Write a sequence for this structure.
């Protein structure tokens, strides 16, 4: 139940943000630094989510079982640096995850 | 206002201008759908983040944090922090939508997100009449909306049918790794990303997953301070639209979709 409420409230809040200025204000100049801030939102959010997920997985799984996801993330980082394509992370990381999981459970 | 029939050329032109954005948007939607199918929340709830929240980065945060068992209020807070940028887009559009019917502002506002903002603004920058610019915005925005919901739905259906050993719950973290690492070339973005990641790890023990929210805010602040020190030429468009390391020809928006 809470899941649905969270999604509905987050959606309503987002809609209110969208409507805020077009309903209230005719002409508003936003401070320039706020405009600059928008470019950092998605990268910062993504970095926070992935760092927290990886760190939590390490604490939760313990050294041996965390090895597979960690190896996948490491290979993904290298693949993206090498190719410059964000999608290389998935295409390189997932096979490493499968192989490492198979090896560790064998 | 515009007419669906008389202004169909402008609607089509707006939709065409959206096509390059879909290259980044559609795979992101597929990945979100996959993760919704794998997460511990109902798949339909995951899909509903599409029409309700309609912003890829906030949707990922909501799905991941609900899946991780974060407190409801903190999940909402994280989504709203990420979506606060919509107020800026709203302010930028207010000038063009002033005096237009309230129903148009309700609909156009609902469709407002990074790619539709960029494509729409292009239309308003041209010296055509306002009705045709509305049509241009609408054409791009409605195509984006349809493609986004179909992509998430497709990802959710496919994801539900795939075997567990594929560990598809890792697709989202790896996707995020790709997005983050490909941003490292830009000094200000690198700073934002590294600070956000560091704060997220350091505040892992913070109650209710509040560390995520803290990390996002810290990352944005770090990016802003970096930018202030290195003077860069004034830009007309918001940073995200011009700052993509591999942008120009192809506005690889991905993240930002509905970001």
């Amino acid at each position: 139940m809470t899941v649905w409420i969270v999604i509905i409230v987050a959606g309503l809040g987002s809609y209110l943000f969208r409507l805020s200025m077009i309903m209230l204000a005719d002409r508003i100049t936003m401070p320039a630094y706020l405009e600059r801030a928008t470019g950092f939102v998605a990268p910062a959010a993504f970095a926070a989510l992935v760092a927290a997920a990886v760190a939590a997985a390490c604490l939760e799984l313990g050294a041996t079982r965390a090895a597979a996801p960690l190896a996948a993330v490491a290979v993904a980082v290298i693949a993206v640096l090498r190719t410059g394509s964000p999608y290389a992370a998935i295409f390189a990381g997932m096979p490493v995850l499968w192989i490492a999981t198979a090896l560790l459970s064998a | 206002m515009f007419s669906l029939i008389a202004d169909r050329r402008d609607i089509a032109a707006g939709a065409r201008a959206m096509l390059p954005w879909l290259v980044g948007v559609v795979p992101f939607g597929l990945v979100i759908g996959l993760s919704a199918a794998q997460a511990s929340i109902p798949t339909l709830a995951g899909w509903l983040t599409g029409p309700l929240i309609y912003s890829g980065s906030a949707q990922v945060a909501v799905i991941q944090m609900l899946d991780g068992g974060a407190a409801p209020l903190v999940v909402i807070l994280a989504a709203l922090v990420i979506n606060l940028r919509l107020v800026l887009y709203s302010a930028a559009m207010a000038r063009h939508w002033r005096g237009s019917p309230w129903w148009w502002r309700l609909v156009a506002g609902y469709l407002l997100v990074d790619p539709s903002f960029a494509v729409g603004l292009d239309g308003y920058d041209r010296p055509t009449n306002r009705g045709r610019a509305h049509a241009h915005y609408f054409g791009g925005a409605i195509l984006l909306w349809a493609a986004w919901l179909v992509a998430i739905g497709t990802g959710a259906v496919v994801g539900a049918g795939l075997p567990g050993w594929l560990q598809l719950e890792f697709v989202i973290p790896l996707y995020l790794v790709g997005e983050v690492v490909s941003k490292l070339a830009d000094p200000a973005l690198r700073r934002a990303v590294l600070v956000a990641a560091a704060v997220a790890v350091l505040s892992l023990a913070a109650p209710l997953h509040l560390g995520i929210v803290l990390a996002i805010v810290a990352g944005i602040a770090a990016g802003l301070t970096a930018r202030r020190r290195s003077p860069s030429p004034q830009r007309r468009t918001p940073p995200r639209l011009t700052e993509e390391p591999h942008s120009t020809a192809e506005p690889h928006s991905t993240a930002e979709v509905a970001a």
About this structure: DSSP finds three helices and no strands in chain A. Chain A touches chain B through 70 residues (CB under 8 Å).
